[in-house]
Amino acid sequence: MAKIKSAKVIVCSPGRNFVTLKIMTDEGVYGLGDATLNGREKAVSSYLEEHVIPCLIGRDPSQIEDIWQYLYKGAYWRRGPVTMSAIAAVDMALWDIKGKMLNTPVYNLLGGKSRDKIMVYAHANGKDLSDTVEEVGRHLEMGYKAVRAQSGIPGIDKTYGVPKDKGRYEPAEKGLPKEDQWSTEKYLNYLPTLFKTLRDEFGDEPHLLHDCHHRLTPIEAGRLGKEVEPYHLFWLEDCTPAELQESFKLIRQHTTTPLAVGEVFNSIWDMQELISSQLIDYIRTSIVRGGGISHMKKIANFAEIYHVRTGFHGATDLSPVTMASALHFDLSINNFGIQEHMPHHEITEEVFSRSYTFEDGFMYPGDAPGLGVDINEDEAAKYPYERAYLPVNRKEDGTMFNW
Ligand code: GCO
Ligand code: MG
Predict the structure, then answer these.
(1) Any idea what the CATH number is for the domain that residue 9 is in?
(2) DSSP H or E run through 182
């Protein structure tokens, strides 16, 4: 029986901050897990170093479910993003180890391929209408079959999804939190025009998505969903903050626009009502936020019963280790819907090597044993952690609001 000999946390900032767990066995095989929690990275690295790693030493790395339950039930304090990201990192690393020891890609351990390729959606971020139309067109030309459109809103200075100076969009900025501005009225008046223009320009075929980023009340979300129905969105994401799960009943009464929720959720208990009452169409919780592959299997299987498909979060603040885990998982389950794909910075790719690939709008996890991702620790050491936070958001009168 192999044993966990040691484990370490690697915090680095190649283009942005990442927290990576590396678990070593006494047989020389190691596994990687992602524990990155945007803006709260050090909380998870210290949770792992101080409270989790000491409990792992000497355990059998093949007992993935038992170790998961030990860390979840054994902490007594359940759920939450810090705890669940730490458990997720251990879980990913153990699946990686198991795959390497059995010399097979992780998707094979999860039941094998359920499809040939994974449809991904890209981000088109524009400062205004014409810029956004151009960005959507550019991504369709790159082969993407599905594109999420975000746009600057007339009359609002700085908002979610709009890059500074036409650069790539990366919401976390160095230093303390910057401030964005918000007006629901201006947003709601503008958004249907954006999607009408996109349909007029690109026709019916491309899948179009949009992220409200938690900014509407249920009745406002109902209005927006209804007004964009003629443009048949693939989904409307996070239209309201979702702590109040029953509020989605109100949205559902008003619109047939498909709804996606869950990138900030951590466990099956956060979405139980949303799924079992069929209030959403896509669940977005990612492998790193949702306690790893072991817990996400339960979530995906539960969702399948209620016709809810997956659409995992895949922004750049999820490391290539989470992206690889997601792709193995997406390939294996029947109720896969779509996968978010926000390509990492070139510098990130110097630190993490990967076997997953993108081609013509689809992604493939590759056939390397385990997850197929590695970290170059010498390269990582060149990019030490830099404090960076997501912005905060205020209404035009100064009221603190959801970002
Ligand atoms: C998305 C997300 C991200 C988040 C980011 C926060 O749908 O891609 O909303 O852009 O804002 O992951 O850390
Ligand atoms: Mg989102």
Answers:
(1) 3.30.390.10
(2) strand 179-182
